[in-house]
Amino acid sequence: MHSLPLGTSITVSPTTTTATTSSKSCLSPLPLSKKHQQHPHSSRVSHDSSLSKPGACRATQVVDLFPTVSPEIVVREARLEDCWEVAETHCSSFYPEYSFPLDFVLRVDRLVAMLSGLSIPPGCRRTCLVAVVGGSVDDTLVFGSEDFKVGGFDGKFSLNRGYVTGILTVDTVADFLPRKGRLRLRRTGIAYISNVAVREKFRRKGIAKRLIAKAEAQARCWGCRAIALHCDLNNPGAIKLYKSQGFRCIKVPEGANWPQPRTSPDVKYNFMMKLLNTPNTT
After folding, report:
1. Are 2 and 154 in contact (CB under 8 A)?
2. φ/ψ bin of 207: left (φ > 0), alpha (ψ from -120 to 50), beta (otherwise)
3. What is the mean pLDDT of residues 181-203?
4. Helix (H, G, I), strand (E, B) or coil at 68
5. CA angle in degrees (0–180, nearest 5) for 118-124-128
6. What is the mean predicted confidence (pLDDT) over 61-70?
7. What share of the chain is helix, strand, coil (3-state, %, to 5)?
8. Cα distance between residue 154 and residue 158, in whole Å
9. Catalytic position from the list 95, 163, 242, 269
């Protein structure tokens, strides 16, 4: 269903980071279990990646010994070089209870699912957006071509790529939108947001809002008139965030069988939508 630009200097530090705010995705992972499916908009806390903390992914612990700590945040399309951090952010946000080695297996599973480029219907779009810290503010240090893609990722590499602090997927596949007419036709003109997650140490810095704004801009470029999402009813913080960005709850007609993200049957969702010509509220 969707796609992401970047800071200046990289500072090496032994500090660590990890955390989250979340939402469900169209980049569906390979099915390890019924639970490892798409995730709607909810806020969850992921493990902090310090070597002293049990339960954190061992491979990520090694990588996080040298995170970038530049304060500048840039939102862009995800690249091949971001794949592992995108998978790590997703899994630590939605499955924080898993410890090694299962957490590592989940990350590899997610990585393979993203790189395999799960097929999308003709004419549909899907982009993974990332918020990075410590990246380049322009493309002067980027190599590769925008025309070359693996899965939903640009085949470009940067000498100063930065560190992924948040992710979001936006698409026009409309898997979780009500179908149209008796023939159950796929809806067009409405983009869908999913898999929203922000690492814990970068929360409350406006990253989720910037990811949403970028997704809206992308949807407008695709010619969409509206953008929608599902939000966990038990996540009032996420509901408040989306309402502040102009989203409104849509009441599902009684007896209607509207599609929802495939997660635990106990999870209930608000279906929210925003017209793209509607300015944000504060």
Report:
1. no
2. alpha
3. 91
4. strand
5. 60
6. 43
7. 20, 25, 50
8. 11
9. 242
Residue 240 contacts residue 160 (beta carbons within 8 Å): no
Residues in the chain: 282
242: left (phi over 0), alpha (psi -120 to 50) or beta: alpha
Tokens of 48: 């902090």
Q: What is the C-alpha radius of gyration for the chain, rounded to an integer number of angstroms?
A: 18
Contact predicate 202/17, CB 8 Å:
yes
pLDDT tens by residue, 248-269: 999 988 878 888 887 777 888 9
Which two three-digit tokens encode residue 15?
């500090």
- Active site annotation includes 269: no
At 39 the three-state DSSP class reads coil
Sign of torsion, CA 116 55 92 35? positive
Residue 1's closest CA among 26, 33, 31, 30? 26
